[in-house]
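User: Here's a structure from my thesis project, written as structure tokens. My advisor, Dr. K., wants to see whether a designed sequence matches the one we expressed. Can you design one independently, without my sequence as a hint?
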């Protein structure tokens, strides 16, 4: 490339020398150029004659046979490495044709020894090495400074991003430069601020949801598509009888083996519309659960899970059943005496009192007896309703308990004498026991209990009323014991229900309404006490009423609502 540049520099002078046949100017220029880079410059005519030579005196032999000369005349340029016949050492020759190809004027040739060319390469390598050695520390220093300038804000933003990932949004990156790194820091700070706001809102929503679920009596189970727990509340554990709240990820089959629950979840996950359903738990508890389910939908409205709401409706269903039984029993109990009264009166009206006075008297007496029974039922129903209504607001005063018992025994003395039953009341010289309550209501309790004992004891039976302290409960215990027919064991749990009778025919014959023990139960509960029964069929029954003493706490179980 250097030799070619030299040819371009000398070509105008060479062309003038060949045209004017005056090589002096060219010879001077060639000598000067050759001396600078130690080049050998030769100007040759087209016939091979040497016009000028920078290193050898003229004349020189013809150069027409030189390879580079022939190549230049043929193609315009020629470059070749060969041993010089004149110098006697290997040279690099580069030749260029002067003039048009059809009538060339001659050839301008430049050559350099191969050894010199290698020395140039060595000098260049040394120069490059020197530049590398001296420039590398500067380059490294500049590169380190530039890298640190670029990397430092990136390192700070990386550390800030790591803190943000750990939940620390207190120290967000600052945008100190107006370049790409500064804009990135500003975007990261804005993102961190928005993310902190979103997390605060999410945490607040999560706390509100946890508070809502925790305060719910109903059990709530959120499940994913694999029927594993996403979230559950304490109510779910209580309703399902679990010791602890199911942990997230727990399969539903490990939470409860209830098949109806799994079936309901699968139907919801399949996209079916499922309404509430009642399920009775297996076993002797008789608990009834109401199950409700709804799907959880994702952003694309696809079903991603299900939410179960579980309610313990055992008491509600029992109350509904009791209400239906109560309506049926009331209708039956009222219909019987009403039908008897109407039938008797219609018969009297049809027969006529003048023609059959004795039959009419019997019918009128029967109508009167059933009217009294109807009045007793209505009065007991009204009394029971009043007791239930005033249970929470009943006025309580100190009541002498033994006095109410003796008053009830006195009121039932004629009935006991008629049935030839002995009633043993607490002795008159016994110290009085005071309880807090309503005297009239308590006397009604003893009238019902002692009256039932007299009815069912039979002729020659005995009824005893005992009053004893119950020191463990800070209460007084009143026991009414009879020697009657007793109560079967399977009837004891229902003995305090309205209109329940162990033997309906015998109970009606003895004048009972079926509401006496229900009235007893509600009065005792209104006095914050409780009533129990012990009985053996054929050996008699014992009803035990426990009432807290004046100033004592309510007895355990006194305020528990039953299904009677």
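Assistant: Designed independently from the structure alone:
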């Amino acid at each position: 490339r250097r030799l070619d540049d030299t040819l371009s520099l000398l070509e105008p002078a060479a062309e003038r020398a060949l045209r004017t046949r005056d090589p002096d100017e060219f010879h001077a220029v060639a000598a000067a150029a050759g001396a600078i880079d130690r080049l050998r410059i030769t100007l040759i005519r087209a016939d091979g004659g040497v016009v000028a030579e920078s290193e050898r005196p003229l004349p020189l032999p013809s150069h027409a046979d030189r390879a580079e000369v022939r190549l230049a005349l043929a193609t315009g340029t020629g470059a070749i490495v060969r041993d010089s016949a004149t110098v006697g050492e290997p040279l690099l020759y580069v030749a260029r044709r002067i003039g048009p190809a059809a009538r060339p004027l001659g050839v301008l040739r430049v050559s350099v020894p191969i050894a010199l060319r290698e020395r140039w390469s060595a000098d260049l390598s040394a120069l490059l090495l020197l530049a590398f050695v001296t420039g590398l520390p500067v380059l490294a220093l500049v590169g380190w400074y530039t890298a640190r300038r670029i990397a430092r804000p990136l390192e700070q933003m990386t550390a800030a991003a790591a803190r943000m990932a750990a939940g620390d949004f207190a120290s967000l990156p600052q945008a100190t430069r107006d370049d790409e790194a500064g804009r990135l820091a500003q975007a990261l700070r804005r993102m961190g601020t928005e993310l902190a706001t979103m997390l605060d809102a999410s945490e607040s929503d999560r706390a509100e949801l946890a508070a809502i679920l925790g305060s719910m009596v109903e059990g709530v189970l959120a499940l994913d598509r694999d029927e594993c727990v996403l979230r559950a509340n304490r109510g779910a554990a209580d309703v399902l009888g679990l010791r602890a709240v199911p942990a997230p990820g727990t399969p539903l089959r490990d939470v409860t083996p209830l098949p109806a629950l799994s079936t309901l979840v699968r139907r919801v996950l399949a996209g079916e519309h499922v309404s509430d359903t009642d399920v009775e738990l297996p076993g002797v508890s008789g608990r009834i659960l109401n199950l409700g389910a709804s799907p959880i939908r994702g952003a694309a409205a696809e079903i991603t899970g299900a939410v179960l709401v579980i309610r313990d409706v055992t008491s509600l269903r029992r109350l509904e059943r009791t209400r239906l039984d109560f309506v049926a029993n009331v209708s039956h109990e009222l219909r019987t005496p009403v039908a008897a009264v109407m039938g008797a009166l219609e018969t009297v009206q049809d027969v006529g009192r003048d023609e059959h006075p004795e039959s009419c008297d019997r019918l009128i007496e029967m109508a009167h007896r059933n009217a009294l029974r109807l009045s007793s039922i209505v009065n007991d129903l009204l009394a029971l309703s009043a007791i239930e209504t005033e249970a929470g607001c009943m006025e309580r005063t100190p009541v002498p308990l033994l006095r109410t018992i003796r008053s009830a025994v006195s009121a039932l003395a004629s009935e006991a004498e008629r049935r030839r039953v002995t009633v043993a009341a607490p002795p008159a010289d016994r110290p009085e026991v005071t309880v807090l309550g309503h005297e009239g209501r308590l006397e009604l309790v003893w009238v019902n209990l002692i009256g039932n004992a007299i009815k069912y004891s039979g002729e020659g039976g005995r009824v005893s009323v005992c009053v004893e302290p119950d020191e463990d409960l800070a209460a007084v215990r009143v026991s009414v014991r009879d020697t009657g027919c007793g109560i079967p064991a399977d009837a004891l749990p229902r003995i305090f229900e309205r209109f329940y009778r162990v033997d309906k025919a015998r109970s009606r014959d003895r004048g009972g309404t079926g509401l006496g023990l229900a009235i007893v139960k509600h009065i005792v509960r209104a006095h914050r006490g409780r009533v129990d029964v012990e009985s053996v069929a054929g050996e008699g029954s014992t009803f035990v009423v426990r009432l807290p003493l004046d100033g004592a706490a309510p007895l355990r179980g006194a305020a528990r609502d039953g299904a009677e």
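When you compare it with your expressed construct, this may help: The mean pLDDT is 80.
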